Amino acid sequence: MPRVNLLPWREEQRKQRLKNFGIAALTAVALGVATVLYAHATVNRFIDFQGKRNKYLETEIATLDKQIAEIKELEATKERLLARMQIIEQLQRSRPEVVHLFDELVRRLPDGVYLKSVKQTGNRLSIKGVAQSSTRVSALMRNIDSSEWLTDPGLDVVETVDQGRTRSSEFTVFASQVTQAGALEEDTGPGAKKPPAADAKKGPAAKAPAKPATPKAPAPKAPATEGKS
């Protein structure tokens, strides 16, 4: 006699399928959550690592900026020291030039002329004085033009002043000082004179100190000439 299965096998099969689907779904969700958590942790780890690198770079950049500032300060100090050294060297070179300048002014001063003031701005001289006549002023300018330490003479003004029976001319003359460095600051044209240092070997500069009595000659002669006129 054949057996007939009267149990609801289809219902059991459906339940088994639902159970398997639930297990698969839970497994998929669990795997998804684990994947998300792992990715989040990995990203956070990379972010922390990059943050540490950025902080290290910022620290190093700050250190380099500090070193650059120190280098700039040292360069500025170096420039100031070099400028001071140049000024000191210039002063050292200009020491004998002052002596030569006054000595040359006295030597180039013609009879009948005496000076009231000498003002120097850079290499430019402003010479004020009194002469017995305008001819004496012209002689002074010719002497300046032929000097080794003075050049480029220029006349600013000549005024004739009556002093009782005599007349005198008050004048203002400009000239440029020749420096040992070579070229003049204002006049560098082809007609500028060479510095005395270049002609020292020829002898005129060496013979200049041999006339110590000449500077006092113009002063006593001025009154005598005025008396004659």
Quick structural summary:
The chain has 229 residues and is an alpha+beta fold. Helices cover 55% and strands 19% of the residues.
CATH architecture of the largest domain: 2-Layer Sandwich
Order of helices and strands: HEEHEEHH
What is the rounded distance between the termini? 181 Å
Largest pleated sheet: 4 strands, antiparallel
Total count of domains: 2
Strand content: 15-25%
DSSP E strands, number: 4
Helix/strand structural class = alpha+beta
Mean pLDDT: 77
Under CATH, the topology of the largest domain is which? Answer: Gyrase A, domain 2
Q: At the first level of CATH, what is the class of the largest domain?
A: Alpha Beta
Total helical segments: 4
Unreliable runs:
183-229
The general outline is rod-shaped
Strand order of the largest sheet: 1-2-4-3
How big is the Rg? 50 Å
| Fraction of residues in helix | 55-70%
